[in-house]
Amino acid sequence: MLNKTTVPVSRRSFVKGAAALSISSLLAKSSSVFAAGSETIRLGLVGCGGRGTGALENCLEAAKSLKLNTEIVALADYFMDHAVGVAKKHNVPEDRCFGGASAYKKVMASDADVVLIATSPNFRPVHFEAAVKAGKHVFMEKPVAVDPPGARKIMAVGKLAAEKKLAVVAGTQRRHQAVYLQTQHAIANNAIGKLMGGQIWWCGGKLWYKTRNAGESDADYMIRNWVSFTETSGDHIVEQHVHNIDVANWFIGRLPKSALGFGGRARRKTGTQFDFFSVDFDYGDDLHIHSMCRQVNGCYNRNSEYFTGTEGSTWGTGPGKDGYKNKIRLPEFAEHSGGEYVQEHVDLLKGIIVGKPLNEAQNVADSTLAGIMGRISAYSGQFVRWSELVDESIGSPWYNLALSPTAEDFENGTVKAPADDVIAIPGKEEKDKAPAGKSAAKADKK
Asked: Domain with 297 in it: what CATH number?
């Protein structure tokens, strides 16, 4: 029996063979799930930037390991030259390339079996809905929205996908990573006792940014510089830190009830985002998670998760300093030799083949909305409850908070970019005294 801190070795050597796990026999036993009754999977890609290109290559590698033939039937990007670049790399005819804000419609109208969606997050609800209505299986990158209405649309469309028996896999790849699956198993099986709290971090350097070109349209500038604008990315607490938030939701097994946070901007050159956030997520039952994320060069970096329990502690990737006091057996989990980014596509395709399609829409929408809740609290300086974002009857102003410009504005050409120096400023100036008798403690008890 494995001891309390053992993590089985040789995961990836074990997995390379496991990933293919008699897929040929599975195909022989099931009716064809791909177009035209063949064993060729037809792929469409919406968003041909770095992440979209990576997702396509990951999917092609996954299909290869499963001994599936592939064909790229449609490529779309806001900028036509991006689509053409991917086409040339993969020897795809240029007549399968489409450009512009409405180019995604061409992909949905194609004979693609699986559509990969990797545009900036503000487009995700619209593109996901179009894919599911067109009967496509979907891989979509995280996050999946930038505001509460968008996150709720993902949830609703995810239910439609389930009704249509369509697969939906999100870019929260830690859920497909062997070491994280082992840690989740350990926590779920009482290895560290009752969870008492934890910390999650994504503290790193700044991402790329683009300055505006002379004569460039608002729409073109925002799309080229999308990681700088809250309106297109959701801010980095949503766009990047969503991975760590997702791990917290997954390991704890429930969603945060509220968020109280702060943040600010000290270094950014363009866009409307903050440089850093610090948020307390209250999961109820006296369990709090401290969330911290930062994008500033020259600072200490950390990208991880840590949880404490009554019987030990654990990082997201294995036992903490106190170890697992309760001895348990840790099972092996499959992971492709190419890593978790390929494994998530293996799981997507295998689910389709065996007739048990994965559907991760709700999970990724929940984690996205949790990030949005933290951002709203930091931007506004207010205590924000989960119920205010999902229950219209409460009458909260956050429920219908929709960021502008919207995805539809890009399609109809009415985009107005916000100024680069206009950011959220929470609270009141010192001369504006808060009303007497109000306190955070009282507010928390509402």
From this structure: 3.30.360.10
Q: Per-residue pLDDT for the chain (446 aa), expressed as one digit of tens each? A: 233 333 333 333 333 333 344 454 455 444 455 554 457 999 999 999 999 999 999 999 999 999 999 999 999 999 999 999 999 999 999 999 999 999 999 999 999 999 999 999 999 999 999 999 999 999 999 999 999 999 999 999 999 999 999 999 999 999 999 999 999 999 999 999 999 999 999 999 999 999 999 999 999 999 999 999 999 999 999 999 999 999 999 999 999 999 999 999 999 989 999 999 999 999 999 999 999 999 999 999 999 999 999 999 999 999 988 778 888 899 999 999 999 999 999 999 999 999 999 999 999 999 999 999 999 999 999 999 999 999 999 999 999 999 999 999 999 999 999 988 789 999 877 765 544 443 333 333 33
Cα dist from 263 to 150, 273, 274, 378, whole Å: 23, 10, 7, 6
Q: Does 5 fall in a domain?
A: no
CA 132 to chain centre: 18
Range of the domain at 309: 177-331+366-412
256 shares a domain with 191: yes
CA-wise closest residue to 368 among 281, 242, 279: 242
Tell me the HSE value of 30 on the side-chain side, using a 13 A CA sphere. Answer: 18
Does one domain contain both 199 and 150?
A: no
Q: What global pTM score does this model have?
A: 0.90
